[in-house]
Request: fold
Amino acid sequence: DSKGVLHSQIKEFCCDMSPAFISGIEEKFPNATITFDKFHVMKMVNEALDQVRKQEQATQPELKNSRYAWLKNPENLTEKQGSKLAKLKDLDLATGRAYRMKLSLQKMWTKHPILSELYFDEWHSWAIRSRLEPMIKVAKTLKKHKDGILRWFVTKMTNGLLEGINSLVQATKRKARGYRTADNFIAMAYATVNKLDLIGIS
Reply:
């Protein structure tokens, strides 16, 4: 039937590592291949890094109020955050080791596709040996999804556009504090996403 033909024509998906997404795609689109969103991969690593920081902060008060300095990319740090991070990196901190692992994995996306698997395996081995439980846990999760993560080097697919659209829709929803009908909300969502100029429209 036409539905079956449509399903057979869809060859690629990009999503996060939600088991529900994965099982749904594998069940309904058995011929499709999954690329795991690289921004979601880095989000998971950032969350593991932050868990290391929280655990270490109990014995290292210097880490107080440093969360965003560790989570931001170096080029996005404010002057104050950069100065604080530089001082913290001089200390022999577990958080600093987790931070270097995060930056190292981030560099993987700039490597040649031929080197990507070797690079990933080396990073995974480093994380597993780190003795940092949150980093070990996330490394094991990423290893299970290795093929889909490295699939990015073939498809270059991400969820960036969809995430941007979703944030605009959510902003539209919050801005009005409710709409009288679902149709009104849908119409305004379309207008916001398309950035229409509604001045003069009654």
Q: What stands out?
A: Residues 196-202 have pLDDT under 50 and may be disordered.
